[in-house]
Amino acid sequence: MFRRNNGNNSDQGQGRDNQGPQGNSGIINNGVMGQAQNQPGAIASSQSHVGLGGETADTAQWGQILTALDATLTRARSDIPDYEAVRALLTTIRQQRPDEPDGRVVAQSLLRQLSDRCGGAPGVVSLVSSALSLVATAAG
């Protein structure tokens, strides 16, 4: 955590709280991730992401991402205002095929709606981003 104590409201790394963190102070990485960056001084943060770098899209990856998203939504249930509507969206998203043009269009739209309805629930945005990346990869 940075403290602004030099009188000019600029963070220059001075005044950093030098107390050791309690618990985790970095990313808990579930899955495969490329370069991940966390905020300075972060404590007990976590991030989920399924690596897709340069790979071709396949239904196994699609299923893996949606399974992780399902588990994340279940954990974040109390943070999601309209949980049942989000579950219905996920059910419809699961029926889409990212390797077909119509399936990609519907999946992209529904994934964005799901993300919007989750209101920033922890872990949802990164998994939706993974799913959208897979859809984009499938489009070629």
Short structural summary:
With 140 residues, the protein is mostly helical.
Describe the protein.
There is one protein chain. The chain is mainly alpha-helical and 140 residues long. 44% of the residues lie in helices and 6% in strands. The chain is built from 4 helices and 2 strands, in the order E-E-H-H-H-H. The longest helix is centred in the middle third of the chain and has 17 residues, at 59-75. It is globular, with a radius of gyration of 18 Å. Mean pLDDT is 73; it is low at 1-7, 9-21 and 51-56.
Descriptive tags:
140 residues; mainly alpha; two-stranded parallel ribbon; 4 helices; disordered N terminus
Overall 3D shape: globular
Q: DSSP helix count? A: 4
The mean pLDDT is 73
Roughly how many Å apart are the termini? 42 Å
Q: Looking across the biggest beta sheet, what order are the strands in?
A: 1-2
Order of helices and strands: EEHHHH
Low-confidence stretches: 1-7, 9-21, 51-56
Q: Hey, roughly how much beta strand do the residues contain?
A: 5-15%
Number of strands: 2
The helix fraction, in percent, is: 40-55%
Gyration radius over CA: 18 Å
Q: How many strands, what sense, and barrel or not for the largest sheet?
A: 2 strands, parallel
Task: Give me the secondary-structure category.
Answer: mainly alpha
How are the secondary structure elements laid out?
Elements: E1 27-30, E2 45-48, H1 59-75, H2 83-94, H3 101-117, H4 124-139
Parallel strand pairs: 1-2
Helix pairs in contact: 1-2, 1-4, 2-3, 3-4
